Amino acid sequence: MANIYGTYQACRSNPMTGVNECMYLEPELTELMAQVGNYEDHLWAWEAWHNGVGRQLRPLYLRYVELKNKEAQLNGYADYGDQWRQKYETTEMETIVQDLYVQVEPLYKQLHAYIRRKLYETYGPDKVDLRGPLPAHLLGDMWGRFWVNLNSIAIPYPEKPSTDPSPEMIRQNYTVERMFQTGNQFYTSMGLYPVPDTFWNLSMLEKPTDGREVACHATAWDFYDGKDFRIRMCTKVIFEDFQTVHHELGHIQYYMQYAFQPLNYRDGANDGFHEAVGELMAMSFSTTKHLNAIGLLNVPDDPEVDMNFLLFQALNTISTLPFHLTQDTWRWSMFRGDIPLEQLNDNYWAEKARVVGVAPPVGRDPALDLDITAIYHVCNDFDMIRYFMRTFYQYQFNEVLCQAAGHTGPLYKCDFYNSTAAGDALAEMLKLGASRPWQDAMEALTGQRDILATPLLNYFEPLRVWLEAENIKNGDYVGWDIPPNKLVNKEFAPYLKEKTQQKLGLSPARKSPSSKLRKNRMSSDFRPALHNVRL
C-alpha cells in the first residue's frame, strides 16, 4: 500500500500545450492543489489521485483490516479500533472526542461559512452553493485537510502587511539547511537539547535529485540507540515547510528527552502528546512577535494584522478538527463491522458531509472507490485521532508555557523563544516519556489532569467574534444543507452488518477488555517510532 501511494503518477495531456505530462503527489500535484483559481485543474488532479490510488488500495486495505482485526482479537481487544482507543487509557474515548468537538463546532461552522463565501466569490455560483457543503477539491490540498493555501482569498485585511514571510525567506537566500538550523536554535534558546551531529549527515532534508523515488511525507525517526535521530522531508523554502521543520524537530526533541528511559517507555505519553509538542513550537515560532524578532517580518502592532494572523492560524488548526475526527470515528465503525462493505465509500462521504460539511466533486463508485485510503496516514496504518487530540493539548500547553515565559497580553502574541523557564517546564514533561499515564504527564506540566477545550476557544475568541459579525454582514447561512441519508436499507442492514463482520475477521460476540485497559507499549511488528505531520 505504501509503495502504491508513494510511486503513483497522475498523467494527462496538458490542456495548454497538448504535451503529455505525469505528476507525482510531491511536489507536482501538491503544488497544483495549493493554487487557487483553476477549477478544472483541481478537479482533474483530485479525481486522478483518488481513482488512481484509492481504487488500487481498496482490496488491499480491506484485507489488511481483516488481518489487523484478527491480531487485535488475539491480543484481547474487541477489534483494531478498540486497540487504538485504549492507547488513551480510557473506555470513554469515543464520548470524550465527541464532547470536545461539540464545544468547538460553533467556531468551525463560522469558519466554514466564511470560507464558503470566499470560494463562491472565486469560482462562482455554478461551482459553489452558499448553503451546501464545500467541494472537497477546492480546499488547498488533495484531501481538504489544511486550508492554509486559501489564505490568499480569505485574508480579512489584504491591504495590511502580510504575515507570510516566504518572500522574505527567498530575499534573504534561506536554504533548507538554514531552516533546520534556525529551528534547532529555537529549541536550544529555551535550554533544550540540540540535535546531534549525526542528524545532519543521516537525515534526508530535501528530495533527492538522482532520480530515486522516495516518500516525501515529513516524518521524524527514533532509532532507539539514544543518539540516532533523523528527519525525512522534501523541504521547500516556503513558510509552510518552515513551520513543519519546527514541528518535526519537536518529535526529535521528545525522542532525545526520554532517550534515557527503558525501551518500553520511549514514547510519548500518548500519540496526541507527541504531535502537540511539535505543533506547539511551530505555533510560537509563527507569531508575528517572533518573526519580527528574527528579521523575517516587519509588521506593526495592529488589530487588523492580528486578525489576519488569527485567520491564518485557524485555517491551519480549526479546519482540521472535524477532518481528523471523522477519519477515525468512521474507521472505528468500519473496524467494528458496523458499515456494510457495499456501502463503505458512500457511508464515508455521508459522514464527511454531516460532520465536516464537504462533498466529493464528482460521483464515486461504491464498488471501486474507498477514498479514505488515498491519504498517507490511512494506507500506512496510522490513526488520525492523535491530530485531533494534539490540537487541544497544544493550546493547554501553550497557556502554561506562556505563563512560565512571563508573557502578558493576548495568547496569540505569546512567544517563548529564549525562555529557559518555559523550556525547563516542558522538559520535565517530555522526560517522562510513556513511563506514566498521560494524565500524570498532563499534570506535570499544567497542574491538572483533564483535556480542555477552553484554552483553544480563548485563543481564537477575537476571531470568532469577527467571523460571526462578517457572516451576519454578508447574510451567510452558518451550516450546510445535505440530502437525506438514503444509504442504508434498514430491513437489510442487520444481515449486511453480520456478513461484513465475518469478512473483516470479527467475532461479533467478543467483548472489549475494558476492565484491563491494556496498553501494549511494544508493537508486535516492532519498528523505529514514526510520527507524522501534514499532508
Care to describe what's here?
There is one protein chain. This protein has helices at 2-7, 25-34, 39-74, 80-85, 93-123, 151-154, 166-171, 176-189, 197-202, 239-257, 271-285, 288-293, 303-316, 320-336, 344-356, 376-379, 385-404, 420-430, 438-446, 454-474, 493-503, and strands spanning 10-13, 20-23, 134-135, 219-222, 229-232, 358-359, 529-532. It is mostly helical and 535 residues long. The strands form three sheets. A three-stranded antiparallel beta sheet has the order 5-4-7. A two-stranded antiparallel ribbon has the order 1-2. A hairpin with a 6-residue loop joins strand 1 and strand 2 (20-23). Helix 14 runs antiparallel to helix 15. The two termini are 17 Å apart.
User: What series of H and E elements makes up the topology?
Assistant: HEEHHHHEHHHHEEHHHHHHEHHHHHHE
Mean pLDDT, nearest integer?
A: 90
Unreliable stretches (pLDDT < 50, length at least 5) are 486-496, 509-535
Q: What's the tally of helices?
A: 21
- How would you write the strand order of the largest sheet? 5-4-7
By secondary-structure content and strand pairing, the structural class works out as mainly alpha
Query: How many strand segments?
Result: 7
Biggest sheet details: 3 strands, antiparallel
Strand content: under 5%
Q: Helical amount among residues, as a percent range?
A: 40-55%
Distance between the termini: 17 Å
* Inertia-based shape: globular
Could you name the key traits of this structure?
single chain; three-stranded antiparallel sheet; 535 residues; disordered C terminus; mainly alpha; carboxypeptidase; 7 strands; metal-binding; 21 helices; 4% strand; protease; signal
